[in-house]
Amino acid sequence: MHIYNTMTKKKEKFVPQVAGRVGMYACGITAYDLCHIGHARSAVVFDVIARYLEFKGNQVTFVRNFTDVDDKIINRANQENVSSKEISERYIAAFHEDMDKLNVRRADMEPKATDYIGEMIELCEKLISKGHAYATPSGDVYFRVRSFKEYGKLSGRDVNDMRSGARIQPGEEKEDPLDFALWKAAKPNEPYWECPWGKGRPGWHIECSAMSEKNLKLPLDIHGGGQDLIFPHHENEIAQSEAALGGEFARFWVHNGFVQIDSEKMSKSLGNFKTIRDILEARHPEALRFFLLSKHYRSPLDFSFATMDDAEKGLVRVYECLAEVRSALQKDFNKKMAMPEEILKEFQELKQAFLDAMDDDFNTAAALGHVFGIVRLVNRVLEDKTLRGKDGTKAFLEQVSAEVNIWSQILGVFALEPADILLELRNLNAKRMNIDVQNVEDLLAQRLEAKKNKDFAKADSIRDTLTAMHVEVRDTQNGQVWAINYTG
Ligand SMILES: [Zn+2]
């Protein structure tokens, strides 16, 4: 398999250092607020990467941290007059609740920064003793950026260009404006720990260096996060870890793209911030997960309810097919007849294409395209009267069900009971579009009655009423089936 490496700016063949074992670290959230759709994307992306590496037979150790000491947490705690711990615990719990809904598995280890204070202090001391960092009289510790010759190698920045934009803020005792804080002297009303430089607390970047070194073997096979973390956060992690410990910090740097809202950058100031909870009020969590996977992880993803509708229609199409497969498998297959070779061949090719897409830098968008290819193939088989009741069809549909299990294992979607999720999606859309489900059911009963009485004019007029309500009716062997035609 090949993975795009931000460090080398190209796709490279991925082989773990130890055959069959992968150590992966992804930067987690700063726990001071509810998670937004950008967090959801990053969490789903690295969840799928971990799942796929496992599917390929690796034993994956996935570490994702929680930042539980930070200016934003302290500010919020002071606003609410509670402890920082209370804030971070509240939002870690909210993160888990949201991610459980999105079927994001827990990481194998979810370390919290405050559990690694000793390790961070040790790392600072090591950097000071090697001349890569210095403590100031007031008790801050800074990393001496110019002492690390390779600084800028991940983000492609040149230290000399950065220099011009950087300023030393009043009160900072930096040697050079480029230097960044490893450790900060505690201000009043801040949590602090006793350390060799007085009372203080960690800067943000140092925690990931400490927690990855402690929990995984360096170099990490994969280090990941959102694109916004490339600079300065990941650049600083590299500087700290490589300067302190020598050697390479991480072999593959994997970054997911941004999420835009209605083609605009998401920001609190624009007021277009979408939390996961905002979205799940009106949408099914699997529809959101499916939407997040509908684009390649490095591409920007434009969120709007209209783009989400398109993704949801795709999800419905897959589940409708799975419902048909399930009901077809209940029927009798009492006649001998092998499935035609060309159908089996096409099925094998599409299955392989799905895996090839995942091997090509986890291209879930292309992989889902092949899922739809299989859905079309299955629908063709189910509609073919000559194949009905034949044991070859049964064997084929069983293989399809096994394939769906593989998709679920890798992508974390398509594992729900088709009838249940289709009903839930329809109810959510009815609610969103102010369609009264009971009213629809009543109209359908009247239409059935009219048809029985051969009053076709009335039956047609009821259908027109339903169409005007965005309700589409189909007459099937199992009676009237309705769906909502939503345009978004
Ligand atoms: Zn980090």
TrEMBL record:
Main location: cytoplasm
Cysteinyl-tRNA synthetase class Ia DALR domain boundaries: 353-422
Coiled coil region boundaries: none
Cofactor(s), names only, from the UniProt record: Zn(2+)
InterPro entries per record: Cys-tRNA-ligase, Cys-tRNA-synt_Ia_DALR, Cys-tRNA/MSH_ligase, CysS_C, Rossmann-like_a/b/a_fold, tRNA-synt_1_cat_dom, tRNAsynth_Ia_anticodon-bd
Cofactor: record remark: Binds 1 zinc ion per subunit.
EC assignment: 6.1.1.16
Keywords in alphabetical order: Aminoacyl-tRNA synthetase, ATP-binding, Cytoplasm, Ligase, Metal-binding, Nucleotide-binding, Protein biosynthesis, Zinc
Binding site for Zn(2+): 27, 208, 233, 237
Compartment(s) of residence: Cytoplasm
Binding site for ATP: 268
The keyword Secreted appears for this protein: no
UniProt xrefs under SUPFAM superfamilies: Anticodon-binding domain of a subclass of class I aminoacyl-tRNA synthetases (SSF47323), Nucleotidylyl transferase (SSF52374)
SMART domains: DALR_2
Signal peptide: none
UniProt short sequence motif 'HIGH' region, positions renumbered to this chain: 29-39
Alphabetized Pfam families for the sequence: CysS_C, DALR_2, tRNA-synt_1e
Gene Ontology molecular functions: cysteine-tRNA ligase activity
Motif interval(s): 'KMSKS' region: 265-269
Catalytic activity: tRNA(Cys) + L-cysteine + ATP = L-cysteinyl-tRNA(Cys) + AMP + diphosphate
Family note: Belongs to the class-I aminoacyl-tRNA synthetase family.
Assembly information from the UniProt record: Monomer.
Protein name: Cysteine--tRNA ligase
Gene from which this protein is expressed: cysS
